[in-house]
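Q: What would this chain look like folded?
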Amino acid sequence: MKRPFHGLLAPLLLTLAACAPATRVVLLPQEGVPTAAVEVQSQSTHVVLAKPYQVAEVRERGEVEQKQTDAGDVQKRYGQLLSVQPAAEQRFTLFFMPGGSALTPESTTALADILSRATERSGGEVVVIGHTDRVGTVESNDALSLQRAQAVRQLVIGRGFDAARVDAVGRGEREPVVPTADEVDEPKNRRAEIVVR
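A: My prediction, written as structure tokens:
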């Protein structure tokens, strides 16, 4: 049985409800994404949150107020929600011998540890991104990067990952770790990145 509010409690609750924002947006820091920003817009106003822990509060009438908070306040307000968010993605890099999809001996050794760490995350997905150096044509490097990614994908699946959760893509020579001139053999660019999320 519900009891009616008595005395000052009901007006106090109504006053607090009128002060509370209809929507609150907090920009949390993201590892590896130093320039993240969010635009919050109502019919009459908009603000851009570009620094970690900036807050936009949208009121019932559409006004947007920008504030600043900190990690402690966010943990206090949203700790329960933050505790159930998925872990941050993990990234690993493997390197290849020139001209093919054979891993270097060091990467072959590292693969077991990488896959062991990846299996600790349940229910996620794995994306393998193949890359090449600048030796060869753009077209042949596109094909080789995809071949490398698919070879690593097969190794991942062979370790028990669900094939439907493992994707392979090739980026060719477009995203070098070490920028070089055309036809330069750079071992650090012959790689596959494994993203576990």
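Residues 142 and 172 are 4 Å apart (CA to CA).
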